[in-house]
Design brief:
The protein has helices at residues 11-26, 40-43, 62-68, 74-83, 87-99, 116-123, 150-158, 162-173, 179-187, 245-251, 273-277, and strands at 2-6, 30-35, 49-52, 106-110, 127-131, 207-209, 226-228. It is of the alpha/beta class and 283 residues long.
Length: 283
């Protein structure tokens, strides 16, 4: 099978796809990575086919990362100021990858590629989706902690039905955000469809939950056909899994260290994370 694997994001979003692509290739399939151009030097050495998808990203852009990780407005900025302005280019790039030089048999799409479900509908190519954390399901029975409204998470333990209220609040607050997606669908002759932020990003055929049951278990309002598949690990740089010599030397000098770290984007907007992580009796 020719399978297009596509998402937009940083290494934390893309590396699980790389792991899946490597395994698909080992099993005799033809995986195609359709991700931002910045990842091409890391993916082509693995012998994987590559197609660039806009928008490209700069993983070292602290200003962009700090904007996206703003507690109150980060998610809105990430969608309305970064992803959605390039939505039509994303659609064009992914559609080309899915049909040229030959038609794909399957699309595997991450939730940040909001053009993906549109391309699947227009081309008629079957698709599956994946998420990396239970947060993506926004369950009323296991509600996430919303950074601007952290007290609501505590209220959920005491007030029956609070999870449903949180879910409705999130939909109400974000109701205008996906308008560019609805406009694109109209221009392509498609119906308005389901809410892209909560519903349409999940495939009706198969949703892969790429996390452990230690983090989350199946809930009644998760999408149908969801499978908890566990973590998919890929931890190399262009196929090179060796650690830098100075890090190897450090690790060999004593007991295994306790490592406090952040994801591939949040590390650029750490705030006081490391100060809070450091022990009080540090030297």
């Amino acid at each position: 099978m020719r399978i297009i694997l596509s998402n937009i994001g940083t290494l934390g979003d893309i590396n699980p796809l790389v792991a899946i692509a490597i395994e698909l290739k080992r099993r005799g399939h033809q995986p195609v990575m359709a991700v931002p151009a910045v990842f091409e030097p890391k993916i082509r050495p693995l012998g994987l086919e590559f197609h660039a998808v806009r928008p490209d990203i700069d993983p070292t852009n602290n200003v962009l990362v700090e904007m996206i990780y703003d507690v109150k407005h980060g998610t809105e900025h990430g969608l309305r100021d970064f992803l959605f302005p390039s939505l039509r280019q994303t659609c064009e790039d992914l559609r080309h990858a899915a049909t040229q030089p030959e038609r794909a048999d399957l699309l595997l799409l991450g939730e940040l590629n909001y053009a993906g479900p549109v391309v699947a509908e227009v081309t008629g190519i079957p698709w599956a989706s994946y998420v990396l954390a239970p947060l993506s399901f926004f369950s009323a029975f296991d509600p996430p902690v919303l950074p601007p409204y952290q007290r609501l998470a505590r209220a959920d333990k005491a007030v029956p039905g609070m999870g449903r209220i949180i879910k409705r609040l999130a939909r109400l607050t974000t109701s205008r955000w996906p308008e560019p997606i609805y406009e694109l669908r109209r221009d392509l002759g498609l119906e308005r469809g389901r809410n892209p932020l909560f519903d349409a990003k999940h495939s009706p055929h198969l949703v892969l939950a790429l996390f452990s049951r230690v983090l989350g278990i199946e809930q009644k309002d998760w999408p149908a056909n969801t499978q908890i598949a566990g973590f998919c690990y890929y931890d190399s740089d262009s196929g090179n899994a060796k650690l830098p010599p100075q890090l190897e030397k450090f690790l060999a000098q004593g007991d295994p260290p306790v490592v406090f770290t952040l994801g591939s984007a949040a590390v650029l907007a750490a705030g006081k994370f490391y100060e809070h992580s450091a022990p009080e009796n540090r030297c």
